[in-house]
Amino acid sequence: MVGQYVSLTPAGKGRLKGLCPFHNEKTPSFQVDTEQGYYYCFGCKAGGDLFSFVQRTENLSFGDALRKLAEQAGVTVETRYGEKSSRDIYEVNAFALEYFRNSLSGVGLDYFHARGLTEETIAKFELGYAPDGWDGLLSLAKSRGLNERQLLEAGLLSENTQTGRVYDRFRGRVMFPIRDHLSRLVGFGGRVLGDEKPKYLNTPETEAFKKGELLYGLNFARSAAQNASPDGGGELIVVEGYMDVIALHQAGFETAAATLGTALTADHATLLARLDVQKLALMFDRDEAGLKATLSGLDQVVGSKLRVRATRVPSGKDPADAVMAGELHAIRQALASGLDEVHYRVEAAIQKYGVSTTEGKRRILMELLPRMQNLDPFDESAKEMRRLACDPLGLKPEALNDWIANKAKRKTLTDTHLAGMSSQHSGDHELALLRQILLAPALLAKLDGQTPWQNETVKKVMLAARGAKSSEEILEVFRGQPEEQLLIRLLFEGRDPRSHSRANAEQFEQKVGAYAAAAVDDIQSGLSIDSLRTEKDLLARQMASASPEEKRALLTQISELQRAIEAEKRVRRMQA
Question: Which residues of 445-456 are buried (b: 16+ CB within 10 A; e: fewer)?
């Protein structure tokens, strides 16, 4: 059974291995024990028996998984009296579909023809019509042995709560059968042909129909998206309406699907990621501001699992009208461009706060943090966002990752932390420490006196400032000397321009005190790590011209330096 979903090869006695179906991987970590009857993935830790495997891969309840396996084994599973089964709903929906399909003539068929649909497309999407009248479906159902309870549970009837009367839910509407990703008939959508309200009406929430988990047309688009991508992932086109999906499929854009009147949800993202869909192109009838609003409001989980772009329909039309107008080339151009969600979030944050000040950089990082904090290498969106943020903010990728990994430091992103992440020369790192000393001279007592200063001015000031109790005393030592201007500038940059009032001044001093505890330890540790990395890089460059024997010695030294760097990082995390 597992072999229907995973390509398995022998991995020892009674064991098979393959690529895990529950997460992306290139090296097989998924194993099946044929003797014990269980599976386990050493990558994502998923495991269980055959029933749990079918439940997870097919998104089924235990009962439906049991019935599926029983059908394949040729065994009949009896349902106890009163026990609800979504399978009953599928069968009742199939009866309703037959009724709607047989009723497709006259105004219903004329509507679909007027929208440019061919007979082949109408048949492919099983389009139908619900006739006017209050009990056409109900009367036929009773003649076929179905009762009101079954139709109500499937969402095909409505009930007047005051009179208790039941009647057909869908009347005078063209009908769109809705199937889930396994092609199970879970519900319907209906559109009026006149001006009645609501224009669109869906099956209400049932055991089988949960609109926040469904995408119309996904049963067709899923395989098309996978076949269209060399790596098996593919991009799905997400539109807003049934007719948009159908028109795009008829025009050859067979990876189109639509939400059912909802935004993309975390449930959608989880399902699509499990189906190996990696990218989404949102194609809506909106202007540039609308596209940006869509991206900025996107569920964090959707963005973390999928790469998302927003595209604008040509000429402001919806996709179905664009197809009818013959604008296929324009649709292809739109799909080839669009706003990337990751790039948009980074660019919007930079435009909002600017990168010319430390405070601006701090706000940018804190705004982007929810989307880039996942350090899982399989989260391509988070990885790309970190990469895009590093260059304009002048950050070292390794340092940014270290900050993200340290939950304590995430809560209080200080100037010291930002300086430590800077990709600029370590001299800037030292100037950041000097600024902290000027703001709170008491920090001088925490210095160990052994820091290897690279900036000569910083070295000179640190030596001369010993014993000083205020920034004024430090400035007095360098009155009239070249270093005075630097000290004044650093002191000015460190002061909060809003701290003119007594209350603001007190708040500022409290802020300095809060930062002080971590400032020196963090910067000295950062300088130590920078020094170790510099030495490691120097040895690595020497490898190119070294003899084999020398290379072995260099590798040993490089390995020892890397262990020292990791040890220093662990100390920093423990102190945070």
Answer: eeeeeebebbbe
Q: Are 170 and 188 in contact (CB under 8 A)?
A: yes
C-alpha–C-alpha distance, residues 166 and 171, integer Å: 13
Per-range mean pLDDT, top range of 161-175, 438-452, 507-521? 161-175
Q: Where are the alpha helices (DSSP H) in 299-455?
A: 300-305, 319-324, 328-336, 341-353, 358-372, 380-393, 397-405, 407-411, 415-421, 426-439
In angstroms, rounded to a whole number, what is the distance separating the alpha carbons of residues 250 and 284? 18
Q: Which amino acid is at 545?
A: S
Tell me what pLDDT residue 428 has.
58
Q: Is 208 exposed, middle or buried (0-12, 13-18, 19+ CB in 10 A)?
A: buried
Residue 138 to residues 106, 169, 290: CA-CA distances in angstroms?
22, 10, 43
> Over the range 237-248, which residues count as b (16 or more CB within 10 Å of their CB) and which as e?
bbbbbbbbbbbb
| Average of per-residue pLDDT values in the chain | 81
Residue 18 above 80 pLDDT? yes
User: What are 26's two structure tokens?
Assistant: 């290139």
pLDDT: which is higher, 495 or 138: 138
Position of tokens 């595209």? 311
Mean pLDDT of 124-130: 97
Average pLDDT over residues 553-558: 76
Residue bearing tokens 């790309």: 384
pLDDT of residue 493: 62
**SS3 letters across 190-213:** EEECCCCCCCEEECCCCCCCCHHH
SS3 content of the chain, % helix, strand, coil (to 5): 55, 10, 35
Rg (CA), the chain: 32
Residue 529 token pair: 């790590």
